Amino acid sequence: xxxxxxxxxxxxxxxxxxxxxxxxxxxxxxxxxxxxxxxxxxxxxxxxxxxxxxxxxxxxxxxxxxxxxxxxxxxxxxxxxxxxxxxxxxxxxxxxxxxxxxxxxxxxxxxxxxxxxxxxxxxxxxxxxxxxxxxxxxxxxxxxxxxxxxxxxxxxxxxxxxxxxxxxxxxxxxxxxxxxxxxxxxxxxxxxxxxxxxxxxxxxxxxxxxxxxxxxxxxxxxxxxxxxxxxxxxxxxxxxxxxxxxxxxxxxxxxxxxxxxxxxxxxxxxxxxxxxxxxxxxxxxxxxxxxxxxxxxxxxxxxxxxxxxxxxxxxxxxxxxxxxxxxxxxxxxxxxxxxxxxxxxxxxxxxxxxxxxxxxxxxxxxxxxxxxxxxxxxxxxxxxxxxxxxxxxxxxxxxxxxxxxxxxxxxxxxxxxxxxxxxxxxxxxxxxxxxxxxxxxxxxxxxxxxxxxxxxxxxxxxxxxxxxxxxxxx
Length: 474
Ligand code: SF4
Known about the structure:
By secondary structure, the chain is α/β, with parallel strands linked by helices.
């Protein structure tokens, strides 16, 4: 396996891509995993002949909730508090981490078991807990693998998607001192045996939230391994971290979104475990934590909410389908973007979460083919949002001088038919001077890795005029 050295940060995107694009093993791993997800998804989406209508309804529900975010958040807080949960609000990543660490400190500050949470990744919670003196253990198998590897996730639903089973076998052998094996069942059993002990000694369980139901103050967590259920019920304290975009009005909406999330994310009709938690354990109940804390994170979401175009990105249910289908993601994987939120949706929300200066190149890492918008279960117009970012970034930066002059010149010529025709003739006349026998046209930088086809002898306009003439004569 190739060892990459560039730090995975959004400002390093060009170096990260350059490192990964020529790694056949990595590309093979990503291609296999994304293809499998897409094939499985296609099969189960067939269950619903009205899938397209469902996408429209899901979009409208999300729009309605975000248009009334204040109302639904207040309702959620009131109902969750009535059920015994403690709701905290955090303006940014630092405050959210501090709230979680303070709660953990009040309960022993020893071991925290974590179930997979992208919001947790967003605030870098594992490292914050470790800095606060806790042993923070990832219990989702994918997260456990990348924690052993010391890497961030490369996909929002399949964090270790970039690794083959052979690479995981080597990692387990190296880090856990077991004999090498690439048998997934054996490796899973090893992880399970270790993690079971960790659940038993944990003081605090930390989770994300897939959906938050305003009408009851419940949180819903979906997963396939049972680790989230153990993380949220075995320790005495459960801390759930969520962005306020996870809100849904009621259980009726939840049933629609559960149908869409499992299918879009993992190609499952329903995930193996769906936990709906309303408050902590009540008197007379045997299971569940004594305390439930829900940390509601802003971290730029209010800014997104007040932005008429980017607000739509808050509809995202983090299914990862836009990554699986993205031709750029399929080539460079999640780490190539430098953000824990990669792919099309990551390129839209990372500039908000990490700052537009640091993530300015991300919206340009797209072919704008629109496959992401077509597959998104909540019908987010992803490729147009990417264009919105490009427009804003280009306007702010004013582009490179040469680029600006070239675009102005093109604008001037393209708006005048005679100049446009003349420049086309000139290009066709002088293009042979740029011919390279093997590669078509020699073009700087761009042409180093691509063949530029030779231009045709006649323009489309000429060919069309000739066709009309021929048909007139016939
Ligand atoms: S933008 Fe749409 S497709 Fe992408 S992760 Fe979010 S919900 Fe899924």
